[in-house]
Fold this protein.
Amino acid sequence: MYVEYFGLKEEPFNLAPDPRFFYLAEGHKEALARLQFAMDMRKGLVVLTGEVGSGKSSIIKSFMGNLKPDQNVALVVNPRIIGSKLIQNVCREFGIELDFNQMSKSDILNLLYEFILKKTFYRQNFSLIIDDAHELTPEQLDEILLFTKIETNTQQLLQVFLVGLPELMEKLKAPQFLPVFQRIQIQYFLKPFSYSDTQNYIYYRLSKAGLSQSDLFKADAVQRIYQLSGGFPEPLPSLLPMPCFMDISMG
């Protein structure tokens, strides 16, 4: 109903994570820049944290959507599901298909090292991204440490990106994980949107949906949306279902 009323081509505030509607606030741009810098410069262990709904997963999707031909990424989106088979999963993500049940963990790591070392000779770059990294178990964090040690005397062979809630940093500061914490080279916390970011986000999505009108939402409506969302982009679409969209926008 409101799509036709306002002359839109499609729903601007659909809950589906459509990359076409991903708005890059300054914080998101900075996070992407740091991820890319870390990958290009082989910075080893990188940690990106942010509250629920801050856009971490959208940043990962945007990052992976702009990889260079020589950049190979293994993506782990739910460490709990993988459990004790994290190393095997990473190998498979890189195209190494073997019967790992017949191999020890050290043998698999040596295989992964030799594989990456050989590919690096041909100027290939390898990275591991783990989303929801705050759910990593102690055993998996021990394996993360092993991944960060896949290196030569002169360069890091496998970059590791841990993405999760702020509690991830608190977990890594625990005494038993200090060896992992000490290998962090880049750390970034994704802050909530500012009022200006919220306003720009709303109109960015509206324009992507085909709206030409530039003053549909009054300042007090944007302020209310900003307050309700807490400045977090992912909950914003749920605050603008069809009836509310019309009530707020019409003032």
Observations:
- The radius of gyration is 21 Å.
- Residues 3 and 185 are 47 Å apart (CA to CA).
- The chain has two domains: 26-190, 193-249.
